[in-house]
Amino acid sequence: MTYETILVEQRDAVTLITLNRPQALNALNSQVLVELSAAFAAFDADPSRHCAVVTGSEKAFAAGADIKEMADKPASDFFLEDFFSGWQSKVVATRKPWIAAVAGFALGGGCELAMMADFIIAADTAKFGQPEIKLGVAPGMGGSQRLTRAVGKAKAMEMCLTGRMMDAQEAERAGLVARIVPAADLIDDALKTAATIASMPPMAAMVNKEMVNIAFETGLAQGLLTERRLFQILTATEDKKEGMAAFVEKRPGVWKGR
Ligand code: HXC
After folding, report:
1. Which is the catalytic residue, given 100, 101, 112, 150?
2. Fold for the domain defined by 202-249
3. pLDDT digits over 81-90, tens only?
4. Phi and psi at residue 128, in whole multiples of 5°?
5. Tens of pLDDT along 6-49?
6. Is the ipTM of this complex over 0.90?
7. C-alpha 120 to ligand 1 mean position (Å)
8. Domain ranges in the chain?
9. What are the protein's UniProt keywords (predicted)?
10. 139 lines ligand 1 (CB under 6 A)
11. 238 among known catalytic residues
């Protein structure tokens, strides 16, 4: 597929996806969403890629869903299309790990996209917010749910009700982002982190991702049981044999991905 609103580059085992609608601060219109879905599906299906980074520009990761596209759309269309449902479930279905590298504005749908990532690395310029209330609406692809799980009720409620932005420092203190780095180092840092993940045994990386995500979907007893079963399944892999042999023999492991 040829992309017009995103750039997709392969850096060894890492796929770098850059949102590229600078004239609209990377607002997520339907074309961006179709292209992003295709890029995620291609990444997940490509056996030579093991981690992805999604980023925007220095000024904006993404300033939200495209307000101009939504402005005249009738409510029946939002309902009948189940607006953003199909796209969101495709992104969340990505089985390989991916990182959101956020500089500048991550607002509305932009913040929601970042929160779909396995984790966020923020530039010191990052600003997160759910300002939908100012448009007479509310978050529609996870903002009220994922933000609340990430930062707790008090901050999530305040942000949704006032539309105020959280800067990178506050986002790190609140647990929304894994780390802050200087803006100039953001892409290098995210690519290095992704390369580290991509160098791990691939099935183990996918299972670790799945395990942590299960913590948000289920109760503790079921989560612990699922964790044990997934752990036990991983012990049957060739990469488990190799990883433990490599440790004992004091050499780096060479992964088969099975
Ligand atoms: C469409 C957008 C846009 C958006 C910015 N632009 N955000 N276009 N949708 N979400 C466009 C502007 O119209 C403008 O185009 C250009 O990008 C530059 O933006 P400016 O506003 O001139 O930049 P600046 O003054 O620096 O302000 C930056 C900003 C502001 C604070 C980020 O752009 C802003 O408040 N944007 C909207 C943020 C927002 O409300 N997001 C939530 C959207 S709703 P022109 O052509 O005028 O130069 C949402 C719902 C998700 O996400 C759930 C749905 C299911």
Report:
1. 112
2. Lyase 2-enoyl-coa Hydratase; Chain  A, domain 2 (1.10.12)
3. 888 888 888 9
4. -110, 140
5. 999 999 999 999 999 999 999 999 999 999 999 999 999 999 99
6. yes
7. 21
8. 6-199, 202-249
9. Fatty acid metabolism, Lipid metabolism, Lyase
10. yes
11. no
